[in-house]
Amino acid sequence: MLPMNSDPAYYYNLMAEHYARKSETDIHNVYYNLPAIKALLPPLEGKKVLEVGCGGGLLTEWLIKQKAKVTAVDISEKMVALTKRRVGKKAKIVLADISTSLDFVATASIDVIICSLVLHYVNNWLPVFAEFQRVLKANGPIVISTHHPHADWLWFNRPIYFKKELYEDQWVIDGQTFTVKFYHRTLANMFAIFKKYSFYVETLLEPLPLPDAKSIDPKTYARLLAKPHFLFLRLKKLPSSKI
Ligand SMILES: C[S@@+](CC[C@H](N)C(=O)[O-])C[C@H]1O[C@@H](n2cnc3c(N)ncnc32)[C@H](O)[C@@H]1O
Q: Is the pTM of this model over 0.85?
């Protein structure tokens, strides 16, 4: 079935090349998102990593350099193709929607799950975390970056913070305008879902951008110094005695 224009597969297919190229230099990614994600990751040598929403494969390539055994997943065929082009056969790259089954991943086989800037595109997190609970080994972390719910609510000037709703944004990349839609949900909603699937938040980061970003994009740098933009979390499974 072809994706509809409200599906992430639709708009990520449309802007795949543009997004992938921009994410290699963009301050939000290179000087803010990636350093915080990396700070939350354990040593990865020999570890089985499930990276969901891999985009153009920039992080996938870094994970491979850390000697991780990577399975990378994306809902967009174009993104999957770009990641394959970047890393070849050095990772298993799968076209899949994480809100359906991850049946290509064996139970209790994964050491680390990474969700970099993907969960805000997913309407229903319940099947996602049910599958994360199934595939992750007992001690494995889930490292997440997602929109900071207070920041996106303010940025989009919505009347009700507490309402889960689809926000619509326009991104201009390479002079072209792309419509992107994502879900706003409260912090309490996120934490309730983690708890339902026996995960707890071990670390929460609201980082600052790296200082090198100042000379590249002073305006965005100043904004990120003043206001949160993404939220970074490291989850762990609750010991079974506490479930
Ligand atoms: C903002 S990009 C992030 C890409 C990369 N992780 C990064 O940090 O640069 C979001 C990616 O998530 C993918 N995505 C969105 N919803 C998804 C879903 N339900 N299942 C799998 N991938 C999804 C999109 O196709 C896109 O490549």
A: yes
Q: What is the DSSP string of 17-57?
A: HHHHHHHTT-HHIIIIIHHHHHHHPPP-TT-EEEEES-TTS
Q: 72-116 pLDDT, tens per residue?
A: 999 999 999 999 999 999 999 999 999 999 999 999 999 999 999
Cα dist from 232 to 105, 108, 116, 187, whole Å:
25, 24, 9, 12
Q: Give the pair of three-digit tokens for residue 30.
A: 């290179």
Ligand 1, residues 28, 121, 126: which to mutate, most atoms within 8 A of Cβ? 121
- Give residue-wise pLDDT tens across range 104-160: 999 999 999 999 999 999 999 999 999 999 999 999 999 999 999 999 999 999 999
Residue 186 CA to residue 163 CA, distance in Å, equals 8
pLDDT given for residue 1 in this prediction: 52
User: Residue 88: which domain range?
Assistant: 8-150+186-238
The residue ranking higher by pLDDT, 88 or 5, is 88
**Helix and strand numbers, DSSP H then E, in the chain:** 10, 9
Structure tokens at 102: 């991850």
Residue 159 belongs to some domain of the structure: no
Q: Does some domain include residue 112?
A: yes
Q: In this structure, what token pair is assigned to residue 230?
A: 């993404």
Q: Considering the domain boundaries, does residue 161 fall inside one?
A: no
The total of structural domains in the chain comes to: 1
| CATH number of residue 93's parent domain | 3.40.50.150
> Residues with beta carbon inside 6 Å of ligand 1?
8, 12, 23, 29, 33, 52-55, 58-59, 73-76, 79, 97-99, 116-118, 121-122
Nearest CA, atom 11, ligand 1: 53
Helix, strand or coil for residue 116? strand
